[in-house]
Each structure stands twice: as C-alpha cells, then as structure tokens.
Amino acid sequence: MEAVWQWGIDLIHSIQMVQGPALTGFFTAITFTGDEEFFLLLIPLIFWCVDYTVGVRLSFAFIFSVFINSGLKDIIGHPRPFELDPTVKLREASGYGLPSGHSQSSVVVWGTIAYQFRERWMWIGAVVMAVLVGFSRIYLGVHFPTDVFAGWTVGILFLAAYVALGPRVEAWIQGNSMAVQLALAVAVPLVLLLIYPFDIDSVDTALSALLGMGVGIVLFKRMATFDAGGPLWQRIVRFLVGAVGIAILYVGLKVVFPDEGEPLYVFLRIVRYALVGAWISLGGPWLFIRLKLSPQHAVEQ
User: What proportions of the chain, in percent to the nearest 5, are helix, strand and coil?
Assistant: First the structure.
C-alpha cells in the first residue's frame, strides 16, 4: 500500500500547488456539507419544511450508511495522508481514512433526495455535490484519492441497495402493530450498538439519534398529522423555532452533561443524541402544530 499512498500524497501536493485562501475557504465550505453539524441542519429542514416522509427515509438511509462506513474504517484501519506527510494537512480530521465518510455520505444523502423527488436537475445536483465533496477531501489533505473513490463506490452500492430494498422494508414495518414498531425502533439501534466489535465512539451518536428518531416517528404517526408545506414564512419560522430546540439539546446538554472520561459520559451522550432524534421527528412537529405553524393540525386517533 505504500506505493499507492505515496501516489496519493504526490497527487495531493500537485492539487495544492494552486491553493489559496479563497480556494481553501471554498473547499472548506464544501466539505462542511459532509460534517455532522450540517446534517443536523439538513435533516430537520427536510422533516419540517419539505416533506416529513422524505425526511424519515433520508435520515434512516444516512444513519445506516454512517454505521457501515464506521465499520469499514475500523476493519480496514488505513491512515490519513497527513499522518504520513503533515505538510498536506489543511483541515482537522480524526479516525481512519478508508473509505471516506464524507464522500460516501454525499452520494447517499444527495442521491436519496434526488431519488425521492425524481427530478433530473436534482440528480445532476447530487452528482455535482458528490464530486465536489470528494475532491474537497483530497484538496484539504484529509483523504487519499483512493479513500474518496472507495467512499463513492460504497455510497453507490448502498444507494442501489436502498432503492431496491427500502420500499419493501418500509411496507413490512408499516404492516406491523405500533408495539412491534416501537420494539424495532428501540431494539435495532441497541443491538447494533451492542454487537459493534470496535470502539463505539464512532457509531454511538448515529445509532442513538436513530433510536430517538425511530421512537418519535412511531409515536407521532399515531398522535397527529403534520404537513411540512405552507407559505415560505411559515417554513422559515418552523425551522428557526426547531433549530432553537436542537441547539438546546445538542449544545446546551453537552455543556451540562459530563465531559469525556467522566462517569456516565457515554450513557448521557447516548441520551443527548436520542433526544435530538426525538425532537426532530416528534417534539418539533408537535410544537409546530400547537403553535399553528403547520397547515395541518392535530387529528385525534
């Protein structure tokens, strides 16, 4: 692998020959669209302001993709370019490098959105975003080109499997009782967390969010109907109000809860991300209905 890594480092050096503050700023902004914080904005935006059902499908696809990516990284254990040549490093990054999580997520997330809406321009946008995000990881020196190619490949394979199997799995889940759905929402992420053979720090946040989100989806579907449409001002207000809730749970609880290494740190981090997931799928929409920020109001079952 040393020859491949050296080729990758040489390519990164060649690309960085044209670097400058503006270009670095641009690719830093592009790579942000693959960060956790960006998805904490994008997924609620889809849930609350575009289409609730699409938000559900997108979040499940994204979280399972993250789980697979983390597992592959831990199994393969490849270094990042700056670990071999610190001079290529233009941005911080942690963990193993292969496959690139940003590249994989860009394919899965934008591909899922394009698939849900079936618009040609969305497919074009999905391809452009995947290419830009992947290239940004190489430019910033945080991934070898092979990491990016592998991330794109896994992302395409995952997306193809999702398109083929997703509707069947969704239909099966919807055909079960509420009790079974709740059991699945709790059991699946917990089982995946328990059987994960590596350090759970790489997957506990995603699976915790999946748990909270899954429970919230099941409960909300039984309690109310929610329309993510409405006039633009209403969507903007919904998002801003909901974002305050995310900030309280994601940032506020992080300040209050124990720091890494302290007692109950892992457990309370799981709780924090589960609450964020539940807020996105249940708490936020429920509040929007109560504040009359949704075109459709609660319907008692």
Answer: 75, 0, 25
Neighbouring C-alpha atoms within 13 Å toward the C-beta of 42: 18
Catalytic residue list contains 297: no
Tell me the HSE value of 120 on the side-chain side, using a 13 A CA sphere.
Answer: 0
Is 102 catalytic? The answer is yes
Q: What is the pLDDT of residues 19-53, one digit of tens each?
A: 888 999 999 999 999 998 999 999 999 999 999 99
Which H/E stretch holds residue 183? helix 178-195
pLDDT digits 0-9 by tens, 115-160: 999 889 999 999 999 999 999 999 999 999 999 999 999 999 999 9
Give the active site residue among 13, 78, 143, 297. 143
Q: With contact defined as beta carbons under 8 Å apart, do 108 and 158 qualify?
A: yes
Which of 18-32 are b and which e, b meaning 16 or more Cβ less than 10 Å from the residue's Cβ? eeeeeebeebeebbe
Q: Which of 13, 78, 102, 297 is catalytic?
A: 102
